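User: I'm new to structure prediction. If I give you an amino acid sequence, what do you actually give back? Let's try with this one:
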Amino acid sequence: MEAPVTKTNANARKTAVASLVGTCIEWYDFYIYGTASALVFSALFFPSYDPTVGTLLAFGTFALGAIMRPLGGLVCGHYGDRVGRKSMLVMTLVGMGAVTFLIGLLPTYSQIGVLAPILLIILRMLQGFAFGGEWGGAVLMSVEHAPENRRGFYGCFPQMGSPIALFLSTGTFALLALMPKDDFMSWGWRIPFLLSAILVVVGLVLRLQLLESPEFVKLLSTEKVARQPVVEVFRNDFRMIAIGTGAVLSTVVAFYVQTLFVVSYATQTVGMPRQTVLNAVLIGSAFELVLLPLFALLSDKIGRRPVALFGAAMTAATAFPFFTLVNTGTFAGVTAAICLAMVGISALYAVIPAYVSDLFSARVRYSGISASYTIASGVIGGFSPAIGAGLYAWAGSTWPVALYLLVIGLISFVSVLLGRARAFRTEAPVASTRMA
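Assistant: Good question. You get back a string of structure tokens that encode the predicted 3D arrangement of the chain. For your 436 residues, that looks like this:
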């Protein structure tokens, strides 16, 4: 049996940093796929179609992987609530890294024909499965190791892996874009996928050194571990899953549309140089990295609810101005658009770990937060780049895409309002989500 773990700032910092490094690697693997979908996969794996249809199909493979995220989240959530958070984190990191490396070795359509996109889809689905179990474990390790009045701040560390990974992945592609186009399309695009193997080794070393979550250790010592956590959380806490899903929705949909779809839109439709758009995304990801800990610290002082409401409202309010700025076709305009989007995205994203964790009791928490997050980011959010491309292809204009963002922002706003107030406070989480 695990020895008790004291919740100290030292343990919290060590765990938070290790979680940050791990999620950074996982998000890096995820983002390089999204960027490659926007830039090269349509030509390499779906060359028989015109550019718009090819982009739709490439983003379709992105969506297929996202569909697997809830399955991965539920499977890892079950075992995370049964055998521990740490073991699931190690498994998902190794699985994600192996699949990403294999994508970098894939032959293209011109080499093996239709088998190429089939293999791409299979690997993408396996990647989505591994990624689905990652977020819940990383968040819980950080939140459950944190002192009660610092859950927002330390819970934010895994979230910072996202902008760092976006910076690394976009930066890597920005450097590779300096290559001759033929070299980039032939072999240069593979480099980011192959480099992930090195990152995985680093992350694995750090994660193996982590202590198990003190709250899970306490469950083990009192023999209160759930026998069927997934069944239990859906039976008893379905309303909390729905609220958590709605709250997460805005930040993931906005992020996919305003950092991934915008790359293909700005380069293919607005006619901006690829390098210029990637540089704008780089600046936006750096801006998000600054905003996340600031909003997290604010949530520890004033509560999760006002910060979360602000984030959802900002996403809705800036949906149309975002595309107005992008349509200027200038570096300043696109950069301003992405930075503006990051304000709303960051405010909500920063408080999601502590908020969603506090919706569920410890015995079913991994299953509950994984269900909420992966339904939002996988079943709905994962289709966002494809939905954005489809809406634009249908209307020949960005207004339906902006309207889509506005509606999603409002859904998250209402979900936050419906959530119980105590889920946004800084004290210890409730003992049972069924308590009044």
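You can read the tokens as a compact description of the fold. Here is one thing that stands out. Residues 421-436 have pLDDT under 50 and may be disordered.
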